[in-house]
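Tokens for chain A. Residues wanted.
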């Protein structure tokens, strides 16, 4: 039955769900990468669809909204109420490293954060390292190599802040080798770990903190299509 935030019924979602932040991007994925698609939820304008890939694998796509509280709610409900076993976040990020260019793809092996998300677990001062599911990570990296995609694998930071009052705060993370910044992966990885589920984050670089570049709409779309294609190919290996 529906949850407070998702209007789907039991069985409406596949075992694997792709999660972009933007509801319209979820629709784009459904329209361009799936067939025999069914809309399964639209509560609060958060669109969700289930369909089949060109190889006949059943997968779903649903928006997460922006930020860790939002993806935390949706991923928790998908995992606990709808039998979802794996979620792949697909999104955009800002590069922190000079070798990672706009339109490159980053696969988030781990996720740091400046959020207090982990305070709910009362770890007595400890710091939890949020990491991707290794099987999904390995499969995605291998598929990217086979496809000749320009990808980077490593640590990202999921930040609570978009407009930072300190314009240089990002450099501390960059000096630690963090590849890029986005806003959701940490909460997704922690939720998956808590519930013994799988999660992965694949990101397209939409901008860079070192080399300001403005993409045209066509350039942005091409970068997203490569990332989405990689996510779909990864999802097929864990789908029915």
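Reply:
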């Amino acid at each position: 039955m529906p949850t407070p935030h998702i209007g789907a019924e039991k069985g409406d979602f596949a075992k694997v769900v792709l999660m972009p932040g933007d509801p319209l991007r979820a629709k784009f994925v459904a329209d361009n990468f799936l067939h025999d698609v069914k809309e399964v939820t639209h509560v609060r304008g958060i669109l969700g669809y289930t369909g089949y890939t060109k190889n006949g694998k059943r997968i779903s796509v649903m928006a997460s909204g922006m930020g860790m509280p939002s993806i935390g709610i949706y991923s928790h409900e998908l995992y606990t109420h709808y039998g979802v076993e794996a979620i792949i976040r697909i999104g955009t990020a800002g590069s922190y490293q000079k070798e990672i260019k706009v339109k490159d793809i980053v696969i988030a092996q781990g996720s740091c954060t400046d959020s207090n998300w982990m305070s709910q677990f009362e770890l007595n001062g400890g710091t939890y390292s949020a990491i991707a599911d290794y099987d999904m990570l390995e499969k995605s990296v291998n598929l990217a190599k086979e496809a000749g995609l320009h990808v980077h694998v490593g640590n990202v930071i999921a930040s609570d802040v978009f407009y930072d009052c300190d314009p240089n705060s990002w450099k501390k993370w960059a000096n630690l080798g963090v590849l890029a910044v986005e806003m959701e992966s940490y909460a997704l990885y922690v939720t998956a770990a808590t519930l013994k589920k799988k999660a992965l984050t694949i990101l397209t670089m939409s901008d860079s903190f070192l080399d300001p570049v403005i993409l045209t709409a066509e350039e942005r779309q091409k970068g997203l299509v490569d990332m989405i294609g990689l996510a779909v190919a990864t999802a097929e290996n864990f789908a029915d």
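The helical segments are 23-33, 68-81, 134-147, 170-175, 185-194, 217-236. The first helix runs from residue 23 to 33.
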